[in-house]
């Protein structure tokens, strides 16, 4: 396998947990600092970020990142930052991006450039309580990012290509909305949002109309009201028809502002018969549908049995739906959606053999626990071997 050097350690600064932990990516949980303890600039060129850049150069992404990372499969094109040449030559975003590109090519470990992709999770709080949410337990703690960090954001919002308020539900937080309202909309920085689509209030819509937007992604998990109520609401107030109205609003906004619009579904045993319907729903509002196999958030046998145990007839229906959907996506020019469906088919084939049976899942869980009990220096060769074997299996599917 050719060594793949991912740009994320040079370009991405992410806080995907309101406890303040910093990573280079939402798919790699290696903690590189904490904004409760240090400033963004000191973390960006701190020992841990420098070390991860060294390791990326030496060993490549496959040695240090999970096999499930979509970037390794050629996906997540929306995270590409090569559009920086569209920006004004004398603008701070373009100048920072060009400096960053040169530092990456020169394989520098300490950078003069600032993060180009700046993602932060102010809180895990949310107006919904979805079936697969790994944040569910932490959300009740009401942990928030510190005021000292929030005060740094406007500076990086003047330099970064992408600012990405995350959640929880990003439109649920007053400090985030206040930051967005105060941002100078004439600055070329673009914003990225993932939302559950239920809180597109007049205030939020007014904000969105003023901002430069790269992408709005709406997490749905359903193509019907019944499935939506089952998987996403769970006792919280949210209406399927409101979400449909908001999808239309975002679609109309896209016509005016020309950003990427995506809707996503995590496939499970309850919604797996709705693949083609979900694709049709997305295409109707000119959105790209991204469908992936749900992850078991707390690695419980109960979740595995309820949501990740598929019957033979379901596997057959999924396969037929993928076949029917691919030409539609190709005709719409949605290459990421095509890739996601093809990868979904591969992962389901692997899942059918390796984890569809709850007993096999228990064995895998025990193996993972044993792996993480090993010293870190022993984990690396084991991870490489497992990655190699898994990629060989996926390539043969």
Count all strands and give the number: 9
Strand content: 5-15%
Unreliable stretches covering 5 or more consecutive residues: none
Trace the largest sheet across and list its strands. 1-4-5-6-7-8-9
Q: Give me the secondary-structure category.
A: alpha/beta
Features:
397 residues, alpha/beta, 7-stranded parallel β-sheet, two-stranded antiparallel ribbon, 17 helices, 47% helix, 11% strand
Would you mind describing this structure in some detail?
The protein has 397 residues and is of the alpha/beta class. Helix content is 47%, strand content 11%. The chain has 17 helices and nine strands. Strands 1-4-5-6-7-8-9 form a seven-stranded parallel sheet. A two-stranded antiparallel ribbon has the order 2-3. Strand 6, helix 9 and strand 7 (213-219) form a beta-alpha-beta unit. The longest helix has 21 residues, at 312-332. The radius of gyration is 21 Å and the shape is globular. It starts with 7 loop residues before the first helix and ends with a helix. The model has no long low-confidence stretch (mean pLDDT 89).
Write the SSE topology.
Elements: H1 8-11, E1 12-15, E2 21-22, E3 33-34, H2 40-44, H3 47-59, H4 92-105, E4 117-121, H5 136-139, H6 147-150, H7 153-157, E5 162-166, H8 174-182, E6 190-195, H9 202-210, E7 213-219, H10 225-233, H11 240-257, E8 260-267, H12 275-284, E9 288-293, H13 301-307, H14 312-332, H15 335-354, H16 358-372, H17 376-396
Parallel strand pairs: 1-4, 4-5, 5-6, 6-7, 7-8, 8-9
Antiparallel strand pairs: 2-3
